């Protein structure tokens, strides 16, 4: 028993301020009953009772400051032991105080970090060009423009009517007719005027059109102009990602490149709702520069060096979203939805890992975050397409009725080619590709997937 007592007292996690001391009556679990017994038992040898489990000082709750217990937070290791085994009436107050102190430490750390954060990139940026006038390109143009009123944000478009609408009324008449754009957003169809003197370029052209579009404007692109890619997907015939397409199309393998990804609907950006995204670049300085340019009180920007992971997760989640939509359209229930998305996440992890992505990226904003948003929310174009497929509509009819591009349709075939290249089995995403190719019905696909061998989860 003495050994058991020593083990309990020695375990620091049992003394944490968030550990809830059990009541003597009405204990909620066998776990609590066991520890109540340990706390109150007396040894036959006449030794005193084992000390009760009491909270440490609040700084044990976990802190972000380099020195624990600063600002009078308290640094006593353990309060006086109880010899009665009766839970202190102050226990609830101690726990509330621990939570309050932990939160205050977090806020102090955040304020200290912000006070040291540099904003010189935004201060010296005079002009940003946005390639493409779709919903997300427009939303990001509006966001960047609102970060700095005297910065010119120039949108390069091909649609003359949308260009005129933005310049004359400050509305994108095609995608956001109800949301006024900042006054410093202008539009043009002239690539030379749009790119002249630009400090950053946001690329929002659909993946399948990007190569030809960039080749057409390459003569006007400064070789040192940083490109921030907003496009998600894989080029169907070549299996290239945007980090490969942009420098090759521009004829400059050293073109500065950053990819922006994460759970973000254009409509919610336009509504200025809180959002978090991630920028990734092999150049840490370039990632930090993009972070400074884009971050605001309503948009958190994390940074990463894993360009492959961010791009592949962003591309494959669109295909998985089609599968999730099919399940919804067929009314197969929540169990089926959870099983399918879980399997899809595993398939994305298998392929991404083979391609060199980091596991942490796949559980972050560009991975799990974007997957959850795209698979479960009705604003997702790819999910909506899947719902209509699952309801029995023909793919041709669906695509002809959509105003925006569902990248998952063209990406699906490229994903399967990548899976074959890296020798990865991807049953869910392969089924989506076959449904899109009209070689398999949604119902038949579900039956085949359910009849796959029962294997060990990996």
TrEMBL record:
<dbReference type="GO" id="GO:0051287">
    <property type="term" value="F:NAD binding"/>
</dbReference>
<feature type="domain" description="Glycerol-3-phosphate dehydrogenase NAD-dependent N-terminal">
    <location>
        <begin position="127"/>
        <end position="287"/>
    </location>
</feature>
<dbReference type="GO" id="GO:0008654">
    <property type="term" value="P:phospholipid biosynthetic process"/>
</dbReference>
<dbReference type="InterPro" id="IPR013328">
    <property type="entry name" value="6PGD_dom2"/>
</dbReference>
<dbReference type="GO" id="GO:0005829">
    <property type="term" value="C:cytosol"/>
</dbReference>
<keyword id="KW-0443">Lipid metabolism</keyword>
<dbReference type="GO" id="GO:0141152">
    <property type="term" value="F:glycerol-3-phosphate dehydrogenase (NAD+) activity"/>
</dbReference>
<keyword id="KW-0150">Chloroplast</keyword>
<keyword id="KW-0934">Plastid</keyword>
<keyword id="KW-0809">Transit peptide</keyword>
<dbReference type="GO" id="GO:0005975">
    <property type="term" value="P:carbohydrate metabolic process"/>
</dbReference>
<dbReference type="InterPro" id="IPR008927">
    <property type="entry name" value="6-PGluconate_DH-like_C_sf"/>
</dbReference>
<dbReference type="InterPro" id="IPR036291">
    <property type="entry name" value="NAD(P)-bd_dom_sf"/>
</dbReference>
<keyword id="KW-1208">Phospholipid metabolism</keyword>
<protein>
    <recommendedName>
        <fullName>Glycerol-3-phosphate dehydrogenase [NAD(+)]</fullName>
        <ecNumber>1.1.1.8</ecNumber>
    </recommendedName>
</protein>
<comment type="similarity">
    <text>Belongs to the NAD-dependent glycerol-3-phosphate dehydrogenase family.</text>
</comment>
<feature type="domain" description="Glycerol-3-phosphate dehydrogenase NAD-dependent C-terminal">
    <location>
        <begin position="306"/>
        <end position="446"/>
    </location>
</feature>
<dbReference type="InterPro" id="IPR011128">
    <property type="entry name" value="G3P_DH_NAD-dep_N"/>
</dbReference>
<keyword id="KW-0560">Oxidoreductase</keyword>
<keyword id="KW-0520">NAD</keyword>
<keyword id="KW-0444">Lipid biosynthesis</keyword>
<dbReference type="InterPro" id="IPR006109">
    <property type="entry name" value="G3P_DH_NAD-dep_C"/>
</dbReference>
<keyword id="KW-0594">Phospholipid biosynthesis</keyword>
<dbReference type="GO" id="GO:0046168">
    <property type="term" value="P:glycerol-3-phosphate catabolic process"/>
</dbReference>
<comment type="pathway">
    <text>Lipid metabolism.</text>
</comment>
<dbReference type="InterPro" id="IPR006168">
    <property type="entry name" value="G3P_DH_NAD-dep"/>
</dbReference>
<dbReference type="GO" id="GO:0009507">
    <property type="term" value="C:chloroplast"/>
</dbReference>
<dbReference type="Pfam" id="PF01210">
    <property type="entry name" value="NAD_Gly3P_dh_N"/>
</dbReference>
<dbReference type="Pfam" id="PF07479">
    <property type="entry name" value="NAD_Gly3P_dh_C"/>
</dbReference>
<comment type="pathway">
    <text>Phospholipid metabolism.</text>
</comment>
């Amino acid at each position: 028993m003495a050994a058991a007592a020593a083990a309990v007292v020695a375990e620091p996690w049992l003394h944490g301020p968030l550990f809830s001391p059990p009541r003597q009556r009405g204990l909620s679990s066998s776990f609590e009953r066991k520890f109540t017994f340990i706390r109150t038992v007396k040894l036959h040898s006449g030794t005193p009772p084992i000390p009760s489990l009491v909270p440490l000082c609040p700084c044990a709750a976990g802190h972000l400051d380099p020195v624990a217990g600063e600002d009078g937070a308290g640094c006593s290791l353990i309060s006086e032991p109880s010899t009665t085994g009766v839970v202190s009436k102050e226990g609830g107050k101690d726990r509330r105080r621990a939570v309050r102190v932990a939160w205050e430490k977090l806020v102090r750390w955040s304020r200290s970090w912000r006070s040291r954060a540099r904003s010189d990139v935004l201060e010296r940026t005079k002009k940003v060009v946005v390639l493409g006038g779709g919903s997300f390109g427009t939303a990001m143009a509006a966001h960047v423009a609102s970060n700095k009123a005297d910065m010119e944000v120039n949108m390069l478009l091909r649609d003359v009517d949308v260009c005129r609408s933005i310049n004359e009324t400050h509305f994108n008449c095609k995608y956001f007719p109800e949301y006024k754009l900042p006054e410093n957003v202008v539009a043009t169809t002239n690539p030379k005027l749009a790119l002249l003197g630009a400090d950053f370029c946001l690329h929002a052209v659909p993946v399948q059109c990007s190569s030809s579009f960039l080749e057409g404007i390459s003569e006007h692109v400064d070789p040192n102009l940083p490109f921030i890619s907003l496009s998600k997907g894989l080029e169907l015939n070549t299996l290239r990602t945007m980090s490969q397409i942009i420098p090759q199309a521009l004829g400059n393998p050293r073109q500065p490149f950053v990819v922006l990804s994460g759970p973000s609907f254009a409509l919610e950006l336009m509504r200025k709702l809180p959002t978090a995204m991630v920028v990734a670049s092999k150049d840490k300085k370039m990632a930090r520069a993009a972070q400074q340019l884009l971050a605001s009180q309503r948009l958190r920007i994390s940074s990463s060096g894993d360009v492959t992971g961010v791009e592949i997760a962003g591309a494959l989640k669109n295909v998985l979203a089609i599968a999730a939509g099919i399940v919804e359209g067929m009314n197969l229930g929540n169990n089926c939805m959870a099983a399918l998305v879980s399997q899809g996440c595993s398939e994305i992890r298998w392929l991404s890992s083979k391609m060199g992505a980091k596991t942490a990226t796949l559980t972050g904003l560009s991975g799990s975050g974007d997957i959850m948003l795209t698979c479960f929310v009705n604003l997702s174009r790819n999910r909506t397409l899947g719902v209509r497929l699952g309801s029995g509509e023909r793919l041709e009819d669906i695509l002809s009725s959509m105003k925006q591009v569902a990248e998952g349709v063209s990406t699906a075939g490229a994903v399967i080619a990548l899976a074959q290249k890296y020798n990865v089995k991807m049953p869910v995403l392969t089924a989506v590709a076959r449904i899109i190719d009209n070689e398999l019905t949604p119902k038949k696909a579900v039956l085949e997937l359910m009849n796959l061998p029962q294997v060990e989860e990996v």
